[in-house]
Amino acid sequence: MILLERPDGIRIVRIFTPEDSLPYRASFAGAYQDIFSEPPYNERFFPSEAQSILHRNLETPENICLFAVKGRARVVGFGIGVPARSKPDIARDLRGLLPVQHTFYLSELGVLESARGQGLGKTLVDMRIAAIEHQKYTHAVLRVSAVRNLSYDMYMKMGFEDIGVYTEVHARRVDGRVSTDRRLFLSKLLTRRAKPEESLDGETEGFGTSS
Ligand SMILES: CC(C)(COP(=O)(O)OP(=O)(O)OC[C@H]1O[C@@H](n2cnc3c(N)ncnc32)[C@H](O)[C@@H]1OP(=O)(O)O)[C@@H](O)C(=O)NCCC(=O)NCCS
After folding, report:
1. Domain extents for the chain?
2. Which atom of ligand 1 is nearest to the CA of 110?
3. Which CATH topology does 2-189 take?
4. Are the C-beta atoms of 69 and 13 separated by less than 8 Å?
5. Which residue among 4, 147, 154 is best mutated to probe the pocket of ligand 1, counting the most ligand atoms within 8 A of its Cβ?
């Protein structure tokens, strides 16, 4: 499903099933490998691993998977999210801090270096947030590298808060070693959208536990 066509020809498409993803799968895996091999992550993923990350996300109920696509099927960016309760490690880290059953986890975001600085990153965050069922989820969370980078600033400008919770991620690095790196959780309180039967001046008041 095409959600947006930008004047530069890049389309934001939403993928719902592993079958929908077939034309994009190889390109997604290449983009995923490239993007996360850079600092601060320096992670090494094999194409099969990147493809299975995509597959697992697409098999998760209520997933939101967006690709920024150039030309026929070249993935230049991606933004993925799933309910936090479907990720045991995330749910464990957040328990007692946020209402896990009502928290949506923005699991993956990346834009190829050649396509950065043109608003795609922000669009992929905004459009995932817009696609979350706001009657059901009160918070969106994500993890960024504890090493400050552009993405931290981007999320702060977009209304995310640093909740001061860190976690360690084990990963294979580009030098072949397995090591841990620190990630920081950021959270955003979602606003309740007016239901059609509610007044037209809309209710934008937040609800749930404030982060
Ligand atoms: C983070 C990332 C997705 C941003 O993608 P992008 O398409 O460049 O993002 P945008 O063009 O929407 O820019 C978002 C903000 O990033 C910053 N930014 C982007 N490009 C920049 C540049 N060349 N110089 C300085 N700031 C820049 C700005 O703060 C910008 O906000 P502004 O337009 O209000 O000034 C991209 O850099 C990326 O893939 N990084 C590696 C993977 C990663 O860190 N993922 C996030 C992990 S959760």
Report:
1. 2-189
2. 39
3. Aminopeptidase (3.40.630)
4. yes
5. 154
